[in-house]
Structure formats: C-alpha cells, structure tokens
Design goal:
- By secondary structure, this protein is α+β, with helices and mostly antiparallel strands.
- The protein folds into two domains: 5-64, Arc Repressor Mutant, subunit A (Orthogonal Bundle), CATH 1.10.10; 71-263, no CATH class.
- It has helices at 5-14, 20-26, 33-45, 71-76, 86-92, 131-134, 153-162, 170-177, 185-195, 198-210, 212-215, 219-226, 259-263; strands at residues 17-19, 49-53, 56-59, 83-84, 102-106, 114-116, 119-124, 138-143, 146-151, 234-235, 243-246, 251-254.
- It has a four-stranded mixed beta sheet. A three-stranded antiparallel beta sheet has the order 1-3-2.
- Strand 11 (243-246) and strand 12 form a beta hairpin.
- Helix 5 (86-92) runs antiparallel to helix 7 and helix 7 crosses helix 10.
- The radius of gyration is 22 Å and the shape is elongated.
C-alpha cells in the first residue's frame, strides 16, 4: 500500500524546516515507515525538498521554493536540545548591530558544522549545568511564522561576554547590547550563580558599568557582583595588544577603545 503523494506534498507546503522524525510522525501514520521515507526521498529527488544535514530537511515547495530557509529555525532543529545562541541570539532578540552569515546554537550533542544556502551553522557546547536548570534560561522568540528556542537575554549577555568571537567581536557585541531596553537583574544573578564563575562575574560587572544609564543598573547590584570576584585576574579577550586593568573587576580589557561610544550603538 502506497501513501498518497499529496500527503507528503501538503506537509511540505506547511513546514519550512523539519526533522525526519517530525515528518514520519505527521504523514500517513497508517502506512509503513519505509513507504513514508521513500516518499520523502522521492520529494528530495524531484527537488521539492532538500536535506540540510542528516535527519534535517527543508521544503522547496510553494512559498518556500528557491528561498533561504529560516536559518534560526534550522539551528533550533539541528538537535533536540538545540537553542539559538551568542550573536545569533542577539539577532533573534532584535538587537544585533550587524547580521552575520554564521549561525550559532548550543547543544550537548557533538555535531559538525554544516552549511546551507550560504549560511554556516556552528554548534557550541552549553555550560556544564544540569539540563533542568539550564532550561530556565532558554526562551522562545518569534522568527517569521515560527517560535524558535533561543537563549534568554540574560544568558545571551553572559555567554557572549564569555565567547567574544562567537558574539561577533567586542565592538559588535557592545553596540548590540545597547539595543536591549532592559535586563532582568534577578535572572542575570541566578544564571551567574549557576555558572559559579568569578571570571564571568567580572566580565558582566564590567559591561554593566558601561551600561549603567542605558539599563538603570543599581549600584547595590554591582556591589553584590563585586563580592563574587576573587583575588585572581581575568581577561575579557585573549589579546597580545595593549591592555588596561580594571581594578574593581580585576579584569584586563583592550586599552584605548571607545567603549562608551559603542554601547550607545
């Protein structure tokens, strides 16, 4: 018994990006899995869909024909635990200063980088925090017609400061952070507490001092963070250039850069 081809086509007309599992569950469950997979393979052969990576597909039918798929949706479906992160999270939250063609996401699964339609997808390892605790710092943001898993504003801030390269560089990050209207300081503190990293606290404290006016940062919150900074020294970026030492946060930062100008966008 063959499944009706129109069932596969209707699925492709409604689903821009999908996993093999989503397809197999949605299309003609009364027929064999082998038949369903054959129909998807035939759709790929006819150019009605294409494989992005193993187990992940995009439609090339109807409104989706010959267009770049929703790259944030692609990243969020790259693995069951995937969440858009770092600079891509800044883009999805609507504050990135400059769009990029590298899309970052976190997942505990070891996945190789992959490319589709001129975009490169890069997996980053999430923090070593229990999944049930980490999930509190993943939210959903609208991207086109879809709701996509993305790191929260507070986690995005911390993660980007911990990986400046994946944030698009220091200037790009600071110009982007100024686009956030506000930050939930309680949630920010909760995430920093889970990380248990004095260096993360130092980086965040330094950034918050730059954004005091934009975000209305209370001095008592900065003092609270300062209490978590240890006697060691920390580095914002690994650089061989001239650096300045910010004593309050025991943090070395690149010297002679217009940080205040950058945070104003």
């Amino acid at each position: 018994m063959n499944t009706k081809p129109s069932s596969t086509l209707r699925f492709l007309e409604r689903n821009e990006v999908f996993t093999l599992e989503e397809y197999m569950l949605a299309v003609d469950p009364d027929v064999s899995g082998r038949t369903r997979y054959t129909n998807l393979s035939n759709a790929v052969r006819r150019g009605q869909a294409y494989r992005i990576r193993k187990g992940l597909y995009a439609s090339n039918l109807g409104v989706y024909r010959d267009r770049v798929p929703n790259v944030f949706l692609v990243a969020s479906k790259a693995a069951p635990d995937a969440a858009v992160s770092h600079h891509s999270a800044l883009e999805l939250h609507g504050v990135a200063h400059t769009p990029m063609r590298t899309v970052y996401y976190t997942s505990r699964r070891r996945l190789d980088d992959f490319e589709t339609r001129g975009y490169r997808f890069v997996r980053l390892t999430p923090p070593a925090i229990r999944d049930d605790e980490l999930s509190a710092f993943v939210t959903r943001a609208r991207s086109g017609d879809s709701l996509v898993r993305v790191t929260s504003r507070e986690r995005t801030l911390v993660d980007c400061l911990g990986n400046i390269e994946a944030a698009g560089g220091l200037e790009e990050l600071l110009r982007s952070l100024g686009g956030f209207a506000s930050i939930d300081f309680d949630r920010l503190y909760d995430y920093l507490t889970l990380l248990g990293s004095p260096s993360a606290v130092a980086r965040v404290g330094w950034a918050l001092e730059l954004l005091v006016e934009e975000w209305g940062v209370d001095g008592s919150f900065l003092e609270k963070l300062e209490g978590h900074v240890r006697r060691g020294t920390y580095h914002l970026v690994r650089s061989q250039g001239t650096r300045s030492f910010v004593a309050r946060w025991r943090l070395y930062v690149p010297a002679d850069l217009p940080y205040q100008e950058w945070v104003r966008g």
